[in-house]
Amino acid sequence: LDQIAPLLEDATWTVQSVVKELANRTRALNTQVAHRPHASPSSADATTLVAAVCIGDEGGGVWIGDSRVYRIDGTAAVQLTRDHSWAETAVSGGFMTAEQAANDPRAHMITRWLGPPDRDDPGVETFHFSLDPDSVVLCCSDGLYGYFSPPFSSAEEMAGLVQAHIPDLQAAADHLVDRALERGGHDDITIAALQLISSTD
Asked: What distance in Å separates the CA atoms of residue 91 and residue 27, rounded to the nearest whole number?
């Protein structure tokens, strides 16, 4: 964040140029993560990452791993990223339904992450999107969205909870976390959200 904030303060930067720079800096982070001292060879550091930026009514970002970004409009939730995971591969390949994959023991295995020591680019991807007035952009870990997916529920319920607490995004985030905890809370729960506010002019 400290590295990206100065870019957003420069009015000459576009969403596309910020996202490109964000991707470059994320790839550079891979080297830092990979070469951190480890307690043992079998305990190397690894992490997923997702980030989104918005300038005006345009947005974009980067991701690697199985954390997600959703664009929420009313009670509709559009997933803007595609999980780098075993489950996503099984579903997109037509081998399993989303519910079958979610219940498989391999569901949480990721296929890309920050930390491989033998790669300059571990597979960072970028995305771009447009925003309408009152759109909400939601970044979250699988510890949250997993409880708004089969067999528990759906992303539409997540969107509905957000919409019910607009314009108080903090209250919306708190309710999402509470619902995930009520359903088990077996993984780290991380969430960040922003909203494009309608102009009153």
From this structure: 27
User: 136-140 and 76-79 as β-strands: parallel, antiparallel, unpaired?
Assistant: unpaired
> CA–CA separation, 60 vs 17, rounded Å?
10
Pairing of strands 68-73, 58-64: unpaired
CA–CA separation, 103 and 92 (whole Å)? 16
Q: Write the pLDDT tens digit of every residue in 32-50.
A: 888 877 655 565 678 899 9
Structure tokens at 174: 């708190």
**Cα-Cα end-to-end distance for the chain:** 31
pLDDT digits (tens, 9 = 90+) for 151-168: 788 999 999 999 999 889
Whole-prediction pTM: 0.90
- 85: helix, strand or coil: strand
Q: Is 140 exposed, middle or buried (0-12, 13-18, 19+ CB in 10 A)?
A: buried
Using CA atoms, how far apart are residues 3 and 12, in angstroms rounded to an integer? 17
Question: Which ranges of the chain would DSSP assign to H, the alpha helix?
Answer: 5-8, 15-34, 86-92, 98-102, 142-145, 155-165, 169-182
- In angstroms, the CA 167 to CA 65 distance is 30
d(CA 173, CA 167): 11
